[in-house]
Design a protein that fits this description.
This protein is an alpha+beta fold. It is 41% helix and 23% strand. Strand 4 and strand 5 form a beta hairpin. Helix 1 packs antiparallel against helix 2 and helix 2 runs antiparallel to helix 5. The two termini are 23 Å apart. The relative contact order is 0.15.
């Protein structure tokens, strides 16, 4: 890097590892996703990643943020409010060893955690071609769960763009909730 190159490390957070591209923790809404999506896009334009990789990172970021808005148990809006939702979580984009990692976390109740496992477990063992086929089939399918806001398709989108199996977990959190974490590698 020459003295005129723009560093990828966030300039307003001195001392943070240079591999951090973006981090946000707080409440998410559609408007916030749009705004921080612009920031992620601009940060990725500063990287040396190909346009294909940048598209995958952005798509994965959007899907993860949407999942937070739709499914986080920590909400400022009533649970039955289906529009203008505002819910808490975090999302991070990092870069290390030639790969990008997108991670998100948000609280969920135990019942919803059990609903997520059958969506995520198969994706960890499917081949790339199987994931692409499942993605196309889901797009064509008119069947969608009444409680689903597209999470199955969202997870398929993330898995389709990932270069390694998705990683996820649940850890105990406040008020009997579980902290759901999801990690994608691009």
């Amino acid at each position: 890097m020459t003295e005129h190159d723009t560093p990828i490390a966030p300039p307003c957070f001195p001392g943070l590892a240079e591999n951090l591209i973006f981090f946000y923790a707080g409440y998410f809404s559609q408007n916030i996703i749009n705004a921080i999506g612009d920031a992620v896009r601009l940060r990725m334009e500063q990287s040396e990643a190909s346009s294909s990789v940048r598209r995958k990172i952005f798509s994965t970021f959007i899907e993860m943020a949407q999942n937070i808005v739709h499914y986080s148990s920590d909400a400022l809006t009533p649970p039955d409010q289906a529009t203008l939702e505002m819910r808490a979580g975090s999302v991070m984009v990092t870069h290390a060893d030639g790969r990008f990692y997108i991670l998100c976390a948000n609280p969920v109740d135990a019942e919803f955690a059990e609903q997520l496992k059958p969506l995520l477990d198969p994706l960890r063992v499917m081949t790339t071609e199987q994931i692409k086929n499942a993605y196309r089939q889901t797009l064509r399918s008119s069947d969608s769960s009444e409680n689903s806001k597209g999470s199955g398709l969202g997870f398929l989108t993330i898995a389709k763009d990932s270069s390694a199996p998705l990683e996820y977990g649940f850890t105990p959190a406040a008020h009997g909730m579980l902290m759901f974490t999801l990690k994608a590698t691009i």
